[in-house]
Amino acid sequence: MDYKNSGVDIEAGYRSVELMKEHIKSTMRSEVLTGIGGFSGAFSMEKFKDMEKPTLVSGTDGVGTKIKLAFLMDKHDTVGIDCVAMCVNDIACAGGEPLFFLDYIACGKNIPEKIATIVSGVAEGCVQSDCALIGGETAEHPGLMPEDEYDLAGFAVGIVDEKDLITGKDIKAGDKLIGIASSGVHSNGFSLVRKIFDMTKESLDTYYDELGATLGETLITPTRIYVKGLRSIKDAGIRIKGASHITGGGFYENIPRMLPEGKTAKVNKDSYTVPPIFKLMAEKGNVEEHVMYNTYNMGIGMVLAVDEADVQGTIDALGAAGDTAYLIGEVVEGNEGVIIC
Hints:
Elements: H1 10-25, E1 54-62, H2 67-73, H3 79-93, E2 97-107, H4 112-128, E3 132-140, E4 150-161, E5 176-181, H5 190-196, H6 201-204, E6 207-208, E7 213-214, H7 215-220, H8 227-235, E8 242-245, H9 250-254, E9 263-267, H10 276-285, H11 289-293, E10 300-306, H12 311-320, E11 325-333, E12 338-340
Parallel strand pairs: 2-3, 9-12
Antiparallel strand pairs: 1-4, 2-4, 5-10, 5-11, 6-7, 8-10, 9-11
């Protein structure tokens, strides 16, 4: 009897690491001091010593049940982008620059080529956010998980000078709300998605004219990463007063998290075009509008609060970074949290 007979293949683990290395290499930053395969990752803070009060910010998250879609479609190269996005977008909301990322993959059986494909997506997410992938763990769990399934989670650390923290405390009535377009459903609400649509190969391969793609292609589109867009705003000399990453809980839960007491976000739902996938979901699932806005991003992946004088500059800076942005509302007096009208 040996470890392999019990279901854990150490040699497969070694091969996974070898296959990952080419992807991980693409994410390296000059501050990374250690190579792949060590017990920990080391990252130099020398570059940030001139900040007045360097402050670490962090985020951790997973992909949720969207990962079931990857199983059904046998497509594993994009969920890693989702995992990185969910972490680094939260860091960007605080004004932080993501520095490094670590992933954790739990699987029923370590298939090196599949693990390397998952990590290729993680690396792509890190490249998109200028974040180094400095470590991770692949855990084989025979008997605990089916052999063809896995779960993916991650952890990111970033830095910001304390004076540049985005806290929302200075948001006032009259400030404007800028919505940044999402790439689709992102990585939230997939438990409901899987109730609305039949999760079969036939269903996922169905082409919809209004989507311009198959259902599966549309749903698995990875979460957009907003790090470079928010950096572009900062580089333009514009102060972001508040930022909200629209994740689970949609507009109603997330936007109030950036608001000080006594302030309400008033959002004009007709200020931008809601992507067809959300309209299709509402129709197919007979989902009420309030539930849609309380579950999904509805085409807006991040909301920023800025001074009225900075509206056009913010939209222009986001456009220069490749993001599409809209003026979607304003801040008013009140304690309603969010008013969608």
